[in-house]
Design brief:
This protein is mainly alpha-helical. The protein contains 6 helices and 3 strands, in the order H-H-E-H-H-E-E-H-H. The chain has a 3-stranded antiparallel sheet with strand order 1-3-2.
């Protein structure tokens, strides 16, 4: 499936779970993480995730696959490892959205559904 260079990053960061995974991978010393490591991170950071096991399930069945589909990560199903690819286009998109959010909301950090709204409708401030 072909996407424009702007559509792919938007689809990749559409959901909070995927943004958390990318944020974690960006700040990690290594570009490789195990799925259970990502699940633990998701469990700690995202409201509504009730256990690391449920986080791992949602990652392996949805979010990791979506990020891999958009070529943001590589996912090895056998070893359950994720390798972060050069995501400079995604990082740039996240930086623009976050900066716009902070500018329009008095310096507050983007969180929750309002941030998602800004991601899809950044011109509505």
């Amino acid at each position: 499936m072909k996407y424009s260079r702007y559509w792919t990053p938007l689809q990749a960061v559409r959901q909070e779970h995927r943004r958390q995974v990318l944020s974690y991978l960006e700040t990690k010393d290594s570009d490789v993480a195990e799925l259970d490591e990502l699940a633990e991170q998701l469990y700690e950071e995202v409201d509504g995730i009730t256990s690391p096991g449920k986080a791992q399930l949602t990652l392996s069945h949805t979010h990791v696959l979506k990020l891999a589909e958009h070529d943001v990560i590589e996912y090895d199903l056998r070893s359950e490892t994720v390798r972060y690819r050069d995501g400079s286009h995604v990082e740039a998109m996240l930086a623009v959205v976050a900066a716009q959010w902070r500018r329009s909301h008095g310096g507050l950090e983007p969180v929750g559904s309002e941030a998602t709204h800004q991601l899809y409708y950044p011109w509505v401030i």
